[in-house]
Amino acid sequence: MPSYKRRSFYLLCASALVPALICSTGPAHARVHHTGKTQTKQTPVAPAPKTALRVPHDLEGHSAESMSIRASRRAQGGGMMVHHTEAKTISTVTQDYISKQAPTVTPGVLVSSLPGVQATNEGPLSTTAETIHIRGLDQTQIGMVYEGIPLADPFTYGAYTSAMVDNENLGSVSVSQGSSDLTAPVYNADGAQMTLSLRHPADKMTAYAEASGGTHSTNKEFVRFDTGEIGHSGVRAFASGSYSSANLWRGPGQMDRWHVDAAIEKRWAPKSSSELIFGYNKANQTEWLYPTLAQWNTYGTGYNTHGTYTKGDTLYYKLNTKATNAVVGALKNHFDFGHGLTLDAEPYAIETFGPNNYGVNIPASNGYVGTQQYSSLNGYEGQTGNVTAISIHPWVQTSSGINLVGAWHRGFNTLKLSYWYSYAVHTEYQNHYPVNASGQYTENNGYLTAFNNVSVSQYNINGFQQLNAIGLEDQVKLFHDRLTIDAGLRANMISRSFSQDLPGANFKSVENMFVPIPQVLISYQFDQKNQIYVNGTTGYRAPSSFQAQVPVYSFTSANRASLPLTNFQPEYMIGEEIGYRHSGDIMFNVALFNYNLTHHQITSVSYLPNSTIMISQPIDAGGESAQGVQAEISTRPWHHISAYASGQFMHTRVGNNIAYQGDYLRTKGKQEVASPKFTGALGLTYDDGTNFANFNLRYTDSQYATLMNDQSIPSYITSDISLGRYLPKIGRIRPKAMLSLMNVGDSHYLAQVNGFSGNATTTRGVYGKTLSASQPTYSVGTGFAAVVSVSGTFE
């Protein structure tokens, strides 16, 4: 089915589903999952997991809203820490914390205070893929899962978390810093996993509305309606919708986002249920520019796109926009057959599509398409110089799959058998439309062509990926469940194919991979409050992006702008952890970790000359190792104040010299890029049931941006504050008001490395070749912003 017909079909389904939900749907909710995992119970304004809170019996009989507020006052660390018992390091933020943050921030920013986590907040509102690092690993190495649905792009592993769910619908966000679940549907989680959990349909009919506004014309409107149980049918549902928009805080341009979340749940029995989950996202924003260090030192936050067009200006803001559109659906089933037999089955489907737009200057004569030179562009015969155009990349990607996990629990033993099948298709090409003297264009005039009406393009690709993964896991509990031993193996079989169709550059690449990932998890529970754990885990990431298999070409020569990997191998990680947990009035977790990577893949990103098109060059960086310690600690409220602190120290080392520009860079023993030695955070929360406040302070050490460690960005500190009040109840409406202040000190800083390079200064390779310099690019952290939110829950 053509992509436009698929989108029409999905939207038709959405238009049919949402009204049906709205007829009988809300956000206060109470729900218990019977999946063998931690049970949670959540409510509209400040819901909190049962694992984190103990709600006193004297609250029974009170409204869910009252229970929510009183329970949130007892949240550990203000909802920034949850007691876990898995034999690996996991950190979680709950709705208690999420509800006290600005509703416009991304899920990655919500976990940016957790140990080892860096997440870029590029503005008060952002609609594009996130930039996240965990233990020095970037978002392409982090598995992203939302209610059993893989969030990451299956080819580039871009993290489209903000496109999948509104913050108001999040129950919790968890980070597993050193490994992923053996049954998780991820193909790139070689060192970490981020899990987003939904606030599911409520037991009680409830409506919730929220309006936010702030600096840079930032605004967000959100509504959610829960049906509660419909009659005695065991059916519950919710539907929500939101609209948000803002001006870019630096430079001209704007962004806007429309989003819908919905779910229908049917409880077949006390321990069996099915839930249909749906999401729709339509977003568009002006692109950020990512400066080099020299540009940052010269212009600071003034390095941006341009508000007016002059001839040949590829930085004109209307030429540089990015769309993030998504339709997602899943049917999540849990069946308990008795006698210790359970089955989790979840089919899912996702479609994401653009386009992304950039500015570019293309030679009117003697340019190239693929490896073929044209004498002149059609319609520009006899002309010289460049034609300024908008480069439109109308990419479309669909992925679908099914994840099955069967378990048999008998006595002290639990056996799991899992199977995951995934199929993904990706299509991407470029069309270039010339702009007039005002920087405007029209598609009716047609795109630029050469030869026999061949579109002028750097690439024209089609790709597909098919994955089969089979897993076996066995868990044994001994000594009255004090000792838990969990061992498993998952075998992943991946087939990926990409074809390139350009004049003189027809190219097809087919790669097959078999990757086994075993793991062993062991924990010992001394008592209810103290636990020690140790694990040995493995993980992998298939090479990312189509550039790993097919080349990208230049407009000005027959030379390729990027080259495929010469050694197409999956990145593979072996990691070990030993940790200790304590729970109580003071809860803490400390863990020592070590990991080793082989075929470590990084991507050097740079702008194509005379354009804002970013070109990726994948690099096999060989081996890398890291050793470190991380810790987090939190308190229960004392005089309504609860505290949280986290920190990580990590040392990384590149294990070999890296092939680069026909020679080898002297990188052995260097520190890994984007891997700060120290990160830390402090959090304070106050909540007396009427007034509340939250403060977060984050520190990130300096970090290298080149493989040769010859350029870095300095350390920085940021802080955020939220102040709010639960207003007196008006009839059946309980209102709340909140002020969120981001980057309180208005620090101007480079937050993270956006595009690495081999060396920022000219250097000599191992065999004597002069290796030219290439400048890294950086993400700029948001400036000061204030957002005021007013919300109300109708019961």
Automatic annotation (TrEMBL):
<dbReference type="GO" id="GO:0009279">
    <property type="term" value="C:cell outer membrane"/>
</dbReference>
<dbReference type="InterPro" id="IPR037066">
    <property type="entry name" value="Plug_dom_sf"/>
</dbReference>
<keyword id="KW-0732">Signal</keyword>
<feature type="signal peptide">
    <location>
        <begin position="1"/>
        <end position="30"/>
    </location>
</feature>
<protein>
    <submittedName>
        <fullName>TonB-dependent receptor</fullName>
    </submittedName>
</protein>
<keyword id="KW-0472">Membrane</keyword>
<dbReference type="Pfam" id="PF07715">
    <property type="entry name" value="Plug"/>
</dbReference>
<keyword id="KW-0675">Receptor</keyword>
<keyword id="KW-0998">Cell outer membrane</keyword>
<dbReference type="InterPro" id="IPR036942">
    <property type="entry name" value="Beta-barrel_TonB_sf"/>
</dbReference>
<dbReference type="InterPro" id="IPR012910">
    <property type="entry name" value="Plug_dom"/>
</dbReference>
<feature type="domain" description="TonB-dependent receptor plug">
    <location>
        <begin position="88"/>
        <end position="182"/>
    </location>
</feature>
